[in-house]
Amino acid sequence: MAVTIKDIAKEAGVSYSTVSRALNNVGGGQGKNNKRIQELANEMGYVRNQAALNLKLSRSYVIGLYFSTISKMSSPFVLHDVLTGVYSIVGSKYNVAVKGIDMHEPGTLNPSYFDGIIVLSQRTEDLSFMEEVMEKKIPMVVICREVFINVPNVTTNEAAAMEKAMDYLIDNGHRNICVIEGAPNLDSTRLRRQGWRASAQKHGLNPDAVPSVPGTYRYASGYQGAKFLLEYRPTAILCFNDEMAFGAKQAISEAGLEVPGDVSLVGFDNWDMSGYGNMRLTTVERSMSEIAKEGTRVMLRRLEDGVVDNSRIYLENRLIIRDTVRDIRGRSAP
User: Fold this and answer.
1) Which of 14, 24, 89, 156 could make an SS bond with 18 (beta carbons 3.0 to 4.6 A apart)?
2) With contact defined as beta carbons under 8 Å apart, do 107 and 128 qualify?
């Protein structure tokens, strides 16, 4: 039986991706670990996959990175985090072309231009673009949003994560909770709404009676949303992302109130600023950088080794507990 990269990884005691990168010099560098893996591959009689080798002959060494939209992205930090994640895996071997699906003219994809395409999808409307990529037989990985087509998919369970955030508020005694949601046309908004409503119902609250307003995932909408919701005298506000939570904090301060003394706050995404400054925000961590890294690893296994794996990969969302939730049952929040 032919020796595979998995056999070499097991023998070397390293990951599959480490062996793949070493044998293909992805990211550059010829360190001791790379040299040891290459020597081990020779000793074991490893022969490269010929189909993968043939694919290399017509390479453009360009990976397309398509966002649902760039001009109306939920947060400008998403673009930075995703690009950083992708480049940390591909190194200097590939160029990355960043584009917006909303600006794509249907039927214009050129298969010779892209070795592969990574799609950061936030809308169901992106499906027609994905179908065009599949029709053109361009290798594709979809990240960020769960999709039910036969392609690799890397995402997180946003509904479960937001349910956990709402649980935390309710477990700390909060029943008068308001919610600042996201843009209505995004799947992330639908999933996060599903999560907090499930939590409310589970704890005996009527979700339809919980005051909520739509936002845009931007600071200004968090500020405006909180100004409106403060009329309900909430003890806590749940925000669909950290940027809006910081906007809500500004509105709370202007009303002469304090976080968390008067109003507790929870965000989502674990934005870089969330653990610093004058508000250490309790939030749900969803690392777009890690999602992008894993999606890129899947893509490189396809491009470098001819490995086609159309599985769905879920990365973990963690609740990061900091200083913005007060336990109103008389105990300090953990």
Assistant:
1) 14
2) no
Rounded CA separation 110/127 (Å) = 18
Two tokens at 25? 């010099």
Nearest residue to 164 (alpha-carbon basis) of 197, 189, 199, 191: 199
**Is residue 297 classed as helix, strand or coil in its secondary structure?**
helix
* Whether the predicted pLDDT of 15 surpasses 90: no
CA distance 179 to 322: 19
Please state the three-class secondary structure of 147-181 as a single string.
CCCCCCEEEECHHHHHHHHHHHHHHCCCCCEEEEC
Does residue 333 have a pLDDT over 50? no
Q: Contact at 8 Å (CB) between 283 and 258?
A: no
Least confident segment among 152-156, 238-242, 329-333: 329-333
* Digit-coded pLDDT (tens) for 274-298: 555 678 999 999 888 999 999 999 9
Burial 58-77 (b: 16+ CB within 10 A, else e): eebeebbbbbbbbebbbbeb
Give the pLDDT score at 75: 59
pTM of the predicted model as reported, rounded to 2 decimal places = 0.72
104 backbone φψ class: left, alpha, beta (φ>0; ψ -120 to 50): beta
Q: What gap in Å lies between CA 59 and CA 295, rounded to an integer?
A: 20
Q: Which two tokens stand for residue 4?
A: 């595979």
Question: Residue 147 phi/psi, 5° resolution?
Answer: -125, 150
Question: Nearest CA to 23 among 7, 39, 10?
Answer: 39
| Residue 106 CB-density burial (10 A; 0-12 exposed, 13-18 middle, 19+ buried) | exposed
Q: Count CA atoms closer than 13 A to 142's CA, side-chain side.
A: 25
Pairwise CA distance, residues 206 & 190, whole Å: 18
Q: What is the pLDDT of residue 332?
A: 43
**Which single residue is written with the structure tokens 């560098």?**
29
